[in-house]
């Protein structure tokens, strides 16, 4: 099923109040400031005009021409009637309005779906935070805008989605799309999994769920998507209290966590435990589709190298046994006090040349599937110098980077990110990134 009219629309109507600070106004502002190139129609029975981001729009009293998508932020009780009125003119609607099944108004939600079905249109929501089609420059939500990239974020919770987008910006992640689907009265997580599995701008899918209504359909969709690209799942409502909270939040049935965990495994999805892990997995998959289990660790500091080695082994990865040829080659140019066993310790004064030659030499070893490069720069060696070495090294295997810490590596990390290399701020997080890549 194509949902292109939601994520790549050519026209949009926004319904609600256009007073500054009102939700409809903020969504309109996001759409305009985000550079949407299609037709934009604000609608409110009171009419008038609204000025946003330097442009003045006439507020229509009613929608009179066809549009791809309607974004609705009006009181819940009038939503079904509005859908009935505009149904012949729209392909789909995003219902931001809350006050449906999540507060016990099951009948109102049923009426909303019936009106939509009557006109053959699809609904996202209600009780949601909206959608982004980032490559279509469409920011149909009041959440923070993001830069284009390969991650599609599907979130049952609007607030979680908003926080994830903001954190994603901080982590340097690029997004293809975002959808907050709230109560999932019509379209649900399964529909979005299937859609993004086939979306050419999406390289990986991140899914935050509290519960699903149709387990069999979900498993089928998850398997379909995970077969095509990495699917990273963060499941909330694992504990009894969490499940109860999920039920009152989006009216979803959280169910037994053990069943979900088995389903994720069976489908080939990658389950993470917390938000930080979700972003680390997303960063890893934005760079590489997969990686083998045999890892070489290159560091200029013994401690972080040992921490990385411990974590890699604990996660079930292998510390690669370097060939004798590689060891001899390393010995030929590294100072005698460097350790040429894996982890390879280049010692504190390691410069551009030492890092670059080591990465290239180790990369050619047939016993090595991937590299974890750690840099804790002393104050006399700029972190950009080591970043440049990583970027310019001739290596065709996955290289995961851990530049630490803070201020000291800010410029180096910035240079890496400008060249599409994501930084993992601790050895443990870098090790986990390799674990997720190995699961593919």
Automatic annotation (TrEMBL):
It comes from Thermococcus pacificus. Residues 6-100 form the CoA-binding domain. It comes from the Archaea. Its EC number is 6.2.1.13. Keywords: ATP-binding, Ligase, Nucleotide-binding. One of its GO terms (molecular function) is acetate-CoA ligase (ADP-forming) activity. This is acetate--CoA ligase (ADP-forming). It is an enzyme of class 6 (ligase). The keyword Cytoplasm does not apply. The keyword Nucleotide-binding applies. InterPro entries: Acyl-CoA_Synth/Transferase, CoA-bd, Ligase_CoA_dom, NAD(P)-bd_dom_sf, Succ_CoA_lig_flav_dom, Succinyl-CoA_synth-like. It catalyses: acetate + ATP + CoA = acetyl-CoA + ADP + phosphate.
């Amino acid at each position: 099923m194509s949902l292109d009219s939601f994520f790549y629309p050519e026209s949009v109507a926004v319904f609600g109040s256009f007073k500054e600070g009102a939700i409809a106004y903020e969504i309109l502002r996001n759409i305009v400031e985000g550079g949407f190139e299609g037709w934009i129609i604000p609608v409110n029975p009171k009419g008038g005009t609204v000025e946003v981001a330097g442009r003045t729009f006439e507020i229509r009293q009613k929608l009179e021409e066809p549009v791809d998508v309607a974004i609705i932020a009006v009181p819940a009780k009038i939503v079904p009637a509005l859908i009935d009125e505009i149904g012949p003119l729209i392909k789909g609607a995003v219902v931001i309005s809350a006050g449906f099944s999540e507060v016990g108004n099951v009948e109102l939600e049923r009426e909303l779906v019936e009106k939509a079905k009557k006109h053959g249109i699809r609904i996202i929501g209600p009780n949601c935070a909206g959608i982004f089609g980032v490559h279509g420059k469409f920011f149909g939500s009041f959440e923070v805008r993001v830069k284009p990239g390969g991650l599609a974020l599907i979130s049952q919770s609007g607030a979680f989605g908003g926080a994830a987008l903001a954190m994603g910006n901080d982590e340097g992640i690029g997004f293809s799309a975002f959808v907050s689907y709230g109560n999932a009265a019509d379209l649900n997580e399964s529909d979005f999994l299937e859609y993004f599995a086939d979306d050419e701008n999406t390289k990986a899918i991140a899914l935050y769920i509290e519960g699903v209504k149709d387990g069999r359909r979900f498993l089928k969709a998850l398997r379909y998507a995970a077969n095509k690209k990495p699917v990273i799942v963060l499941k909330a409502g694992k504990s009894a209290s969490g499940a109860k909270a999920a039920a009152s939040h989006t009216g979803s049935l959280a169910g037994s966590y053990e069943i979900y965990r088995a389903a994720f495994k069976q489908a080939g999805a990658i389950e993470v435990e917390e938000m930080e892990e979700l972003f680390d997995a997303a960063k890893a998959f934005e760079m590489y589709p997969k990686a083998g289990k045999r890892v070489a660790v290159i560091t200029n500091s013994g401690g972080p190298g040992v921490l990385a080695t411990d974590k890699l082994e604990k996660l079930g990865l292998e510390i690669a046994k370097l060939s004798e040829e590689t060891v001899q080659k390393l010995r030929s140019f590294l100072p005698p006090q460097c350790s040429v066993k894996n982890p390879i310790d280049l010692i504190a004064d390691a410069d551009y040349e030492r890092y670059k030659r080591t990465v290239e030499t180790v990369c050619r070893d047939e016993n090595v599937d991937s590299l974890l490069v750690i840099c804790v720069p002393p104050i006399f060696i700029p972190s950009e110098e080591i970043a440049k070495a990583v970027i310019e090294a001739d290596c065709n295997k996955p290289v995961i980077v851990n530049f630490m810490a803070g201020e000291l590596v800010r410029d180096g990390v910035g240079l890496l990110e400008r060249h599409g290399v994501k930084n993992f701020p601790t050895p443990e997080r870098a090790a986990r990134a390799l674990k997720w890549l190995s699961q593919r």
